[in-house]
Amino acid sequence: MSDAWIVSTVDGGHVRLRSGKIGLMSLDASAPVSGGELVIDGDQASFTLRLDLGQMRTGNFLLQAAARSVISSNDVHVLTYVGSGPAVDAGWRVSGTAVAGPVEVPLDLTITAIGPQESPMAEIDITGSANVGTVHLPLPGMGTVDDFGFDVEARLAMTPHTG
What is the sign, positive or negative, of the torsion defined by CA atoms of 123, 91, 33, 68? Predict the structure, then answer.
């Protein structure tokens, strides 16, 4: 018997992406969640998450312009992550791939239930990191970043799937 929860998009859940230094700056962006689902079957979890890249925000206008340029030139408006994995400690460790158009990034995430005691799955915490490798940025003086990696953080409200 499996249990399923839907990621609530009503509360404005966002996923935060932070990079290390890229030249003199770092990327700190957030993208709103447009959907997702967590299914627990025994000690295995399957997790799907969709981000609206067209609504991604950065704290730096140069990086914001670069992000919009990359998104529109590749016609990539949604990032979809699909992963699965076992229960670990107080949560689950899922491995999968984040896909946005032609870009595929292997990504491991740790999911932890952090809701109140009477309903721990009402909110989950997601953490992870990925290394993309070489990235070409459309920024003056930036060009190519050889070892681009980023951290993923999110706290998402969940509702039981009743269908």
Answer: positive
